[in-house]
Amino acid sequence: MSLRATDLAYRVPGGHQLFTGLDLRVEAGQVVGLTGESGCGKSTLARILAGHLPPTTGTVLTDGYPVNAPGPRPVQLVQQHPEKAVNPRWTMRSVVAEAHDPDPALCERLGIRAEWYGRRPAELSGGELQRFCLLRALGPRTRYLIADEMTAMFDTLTQAELFAVVRDIVTERSIGLLVISHDIPLLDRLCDEIVAMPEQASAVSP
Ligand SMILES: Nc1ncnc2c1ncn2[C@@H]1O[C@H](COP(=O)(O)OP(=O)(O)OP(=O)(O)O)[C@@H](O)[C@H]1O
Fold first, then answer.
1. Percent residues over pLDDT 70 in the chain
2. Locate the ABC transporter domain: which residues (predicted)?
3. How far apart are CA 191 and CA 3, in angstroms?
4. For residue range 78-106, what is the model confidence (pLDDT) as tens digits?
């Protein structure tokens, strides 16, 4: 059981080639770190792995099936900017309910307070909002989670606390976790394996 990308290439529409020949594998229950210089295409790769963006060429399979096969999405993505990932007009109750009926124990573990559910995104801090994005992403059908700089807005203590909770949850549920970050000490603490974007990713010619 794995999230497996094979021979991926992506060319920015009307622009340059971001990467070619990229292979990546995250096993169920494994925590993999991904790092690489700014602008090399990590967030683009994250969107491709989650099935939000088609690669120019190559395949992404989750447990042997195409990532964008019809049905519930097995790969969930939590991004750096939670405010861009939610409908600003919806209450947090609606944002989460659209995805799944949240388990109260999971809400508690993520530090979500009952009074936040009736608020809209602009009425929460970035960190509070990100907890809802995590809750939404950790539905019962999630098999793989991609955390793309997801704690960039947290202080160091909160970042460590939240990643500890997420690490426990993915282990308990055998979810494969891909952590994208520039923070190598964080990746060292969390990950079973760390991979770097290939050198060519930032050097592929137009
Ligand atoms: N739809 C698009 N249109 C134009 N350019 C794009 C598009 N998507 C990505 N890019 C460009 O592709 C490059 C890679 O962006 P991406 O956000 O994937 O990099 P990154 O490695 O995650 O960077 P960072 O570490 O700074 O977050 C950037 O130069 C970006 O401007």
1. 96
2. 3-206
3. 16
4. 998 999 999 999 999 999 999 889 899 99
Which residue's CA is the nearest one to ligand 1's atom 29? 39
Q: How far apart are CA 160 and CA 10, in angstroms?
A: 33
Decide: 15 in ligand 1 pocket, CB within 6 A.
yes
| Euclidean distance between CA atoms 31 and 191, whole angstroms | 5
Q: How confident is the model at residue 35 (pLDDT cuts 50, 70, 90)?
A: very high
Query: Widest CA span of the chain, in angstroms?
Result: 52
Identify the pLDDT of residue 200: 55
CA-CA distance, 169 to 128, in Å (whole number)? 19
For ligand 1, the distance from its centroid to the CA atom of residue 114, given in whole angstroms, is 36
* DSSP H helices in the chain: 42-49, 92-97, 104-109, 126-137, 156-173, 184-190
41 Cβ inside 6 Å of ligand 1: yes
Q: Is 14 in the pocket of ligand 1 (CB under 6 A)?
A: no
